[in-house]
Amino acid sequence: MTLQPFPDDWSRALVVVAHPDDMEYGGAGAVARWTDAGKEVAYLLVTRGEAGIDSLPPVEAGPLREGEQRAACAAVGVSEVEFLDHPDGVVEYGLPLRRDIAAAIRRFRPDLVVTANFGDRWPGGSLNMADHVHTGRAVLDACRDAGNRWVFPGAGGDSWTGVRYLAVVGTPQPTHAVDIGPVFDRAVASLSAHRAYLAALGDGGMADPETFLRSQAEVVAEQVPGAALAVGFEVFAL
């Protein structure tokens, strides 16, 4: 299967993921290509990742991981970063989460919304986790909520019907791809900015940014003519 080029008829994107590092494990290279092309990209983090480092209590880990996320964003040209402060590890799908994301969409007014895989499994078959599933489902619904002035009235300002695409990174069923060969070093730098988190992972494959990202990008690039390294997305027109 040949993946299609990622749509280019958009100017502003909002990335909405559950945790610091979620976008960096594959998607940040695409963001670097977009910002290099003059696209505006902002990030919305549902949590601060405060439950993600076993050796650090949440009160210490949260601010640390926020700082690492901001550095990761800077590496790919993103300066707008917000955190919703939903509790890490126990993110619940429901009206409060949908309201918060819809309000952010109304504030940022993107034509592209990006989130991470919210299916049951990752490519390769490993199981996904509840925070990702609940966040992605809420993002999908919030794209519609943001455009209905009678849903969450007053949250985030006027309704916004301009979301044209929802793109999901890390999905087992990509439809489109971005060639990240020219910016691969920045994708690695973005993931490497999560120093404390990576150190806590030990010596596993996910703790080595260059090796992990290259192996994933090479697999996707097999479906992208002319690319050596690529990031895949499942793209939905809304």
From TrEMBL:
Keywords per UniProt: Zinc
Record keyword Zinc present: yes
InterPro entries, A to Z: GlcNAc_PI_deacetylase-related, LmbE-like_dom_sf
Keyword flag Zinc: yes
Domain of life of the native organism: Bacteria
Entry-linked Pfam families: PIG-L
Protein name: PIG-L family deacetylase
Source organism: Pseudonocardia yuanmonensis
